[in-house]
Write a structure and sequence with these properties.
By secondary structure, the chain is mainly β. The chain has strands at residues 2-3, 8-9, 15-17, 24-41, 44-58, 67-77, 82-90, 95-102, 108-111, 117-126, 129-139, 144-150, 156-157, 163-172, 176-183. The radius of gyration is 17 Å and the shape is globular.
Length: 186
């Protein structure tokens, strides 16, 4: 892994608000990794290259008692820009959102609750539960209006806290690839 850009601090210098009640975390990313390596396979060595995104987040308190789960994306646009966004789902249908726009040079713009919209477009039955696996994501301040498609709609992680996560492709106002993580669809 080789970092080709700066660390990105989400929210206010890394202080990332998670609810109107004040829950927050400290959250930063390294979305500018270039990856090279070799996979050792039974048929021989296979050289690989690509990009990677690393997140680090911690908090001293859980989410709000009214929050049921989250839908989170990291997006890499064809023009070199990047975006992180999340919607924390609340009981009764409300959401708390946040986004960080990351210019190709690493300059960031933080967007508060309400600036980002994540709308489920299609649901897939995964391990006996309905999970929204296709989304429309809108960040009007940056002209983003995209629709996502998972590479594998069955990407359920059946661990102690079960969740869905996996790579996505998207198209619309921007093209590129990304990653989607969702919790609370038990």
């Amino acid at each position: 892994l080789t970092a080709t850009g700066p660390l990105v601090f989400h929210g206010d210098g890394g202080y990332s608000v998670k609810s109107s009640e004040g829950q927050a975390s400290y959250y930063y990313s390294q979305p500018f990794y270039e990856v090279t390596g070799t996979l050792e396979l039974p048929g021989g060595a296979l050289p690989v290259t690509g990009t990677a995104w690393l997140d680090r987040e911690w908090s001293s308190q859980p989410l709000s008692n009214t929050q049921e789960g989250w839908d989170w994306v990291s997006l890499q646009f064809a023009d070199g820009a990047r975006m992180m966004g999340f919607a924390l789902r609340e009981g009764g249908g409300g959401v708390f959102t946040s986004a960080t726009w990351i210019a190709p040079d690493g300059t960031t713009t933080a967007y508060p609750d309400g600036a980002l919209t994540m709308t489920p477009l299609a649901v897939t039955e995964v391990e006996g539960r309905d999970v929204p696996t296709e989304w429309r994501i809108d960040l009007p301040a940056q002209g983003v209006r995209i629709e996502t498609t998972p590479l594998n709609p069955q990407s359920w992680m059946d661990v102690s806290v079960s969740y869905w996560e996996g790579p996505i492709r998207f198209s619309g106002s921007h093209t590129g690839r990304g990653y989607l993580e969702m919790t609370g669809y038990d």
